[in-house]
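Exercise 7. Given the encoded structure of a 295-residue chain, write a plausible sequence.
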């Protein structure tokens, strides 16, 4: 097999063919990893895999996160994105709070930016897909950074951003209880992220980004909203229409994504996500006193 990498959008994203994700040699994985670092979103078609195979593939990128308690797959490495009840296998009622909770996934975000140890990437596999809707849209925060005026880049370099899961879910009308709030305290990260392999810079923004530390509240909100709006401009995004057996790996340091709606009363959708942690990022944080002060 010959590995082929084809660009999907002008400034990020690639489809990779000629690989079997359940049986990757070291050499082929290195090529996949290289494409991931270069393109931010890598798409594979026709790669059906079970949970064990997904875990093995995902672990090639790094250690996996455990899923937090608000997801039905709590305690496993999977974050389940589905309208199918994990216990019964039947479609859930549309007013089920688990469906309501997933509406947060329809806001532009990167996964786990609200955690103290951020995520390197997520792996999402399509197990059951609706006939229409339920797409995933992607945007590049690297393209945004690289297109900014140098004076704005200089203003953002060195800034620290606070991400808060309780706050972002409240924006979509989902109030965490006391235990959920305690489990998800805010986390601080460098606003400008530097890819250690390519040296290219990106922005850690999206729905969980509450404020830039030390900035006036209004100014901070305006800047975060402006950066997000640049990233998600319609001609800048890639829209993935899922087929069963698709797998996508996205870089949570350099891209944003969101789900689009589908008719939960008519269709079944089951996507399994594994999330790769990035403990090495913490080393970079030593140069940011505002982060260590957050405790
Ligand atoms: Fe997500």
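Solution.
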């Amino acid at each position: 097999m010959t590995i082929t990498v084809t660009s999907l959008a002008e400034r990020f994203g690639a489809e990779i063919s000629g690989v079997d994700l359940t049986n990757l040699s070291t050499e082929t994985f290195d090529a996949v990893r290289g494409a991931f670092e270069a393109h931010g979103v890598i798409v594979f078609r026709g790669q059906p895999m079970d949970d064990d195979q997904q875990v093995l593939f995902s672990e090639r990128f790094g250690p996996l996160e455990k899923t937090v308690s608000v997801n039905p797959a709590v305690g496993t490495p999977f974050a389940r994105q589905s309208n199918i009840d994990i216990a019964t296998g039947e479609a859930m009622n549309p007013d089920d709070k688990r469906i309501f909770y997933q509406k947060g996934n329809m806001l532009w975000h990167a996964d786990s930016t609200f955690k103290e140890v951020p995520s390197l990437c997520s792996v999402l596999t399509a197990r059951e897909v609706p006939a229409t809707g339920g797409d995933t849209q992607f945007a590049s925060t690297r393209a945004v950074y690289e297109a900014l005026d140098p004076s704005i880049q200089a203003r953002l370099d060195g800034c620290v951003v606070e991400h808060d899961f309780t706050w972002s879910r409240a924006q979509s009308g989902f109030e965490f209880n006391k235990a959920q709030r305690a489990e998800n305290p805010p986390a601080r990260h460098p606003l400008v992220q530097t890819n250690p392999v390519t040296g290219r810079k990106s922005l850690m923004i999206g729905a969980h980004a509450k404020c830039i530390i030390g900035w006036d509240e209004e100014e901070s909100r305006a800047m975060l909203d402006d950066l997000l709006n640049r990233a998600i401009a319609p001609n800048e995004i890639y829209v993935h229409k899922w087929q069963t057996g698709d797998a996508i790996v996205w870089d949570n340091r350099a891209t944003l994504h969101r789900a689009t709606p589908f008719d939960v009363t008519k269709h079944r959708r089951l996507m399994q996500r594994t999330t790769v942690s990035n403990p090495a990022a913490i080393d970079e944080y030593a140069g940011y006193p505002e982060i260590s002060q957050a405790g």
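Remark. The chain has one domain: 4-293. Students should compare their own answers with the one above.
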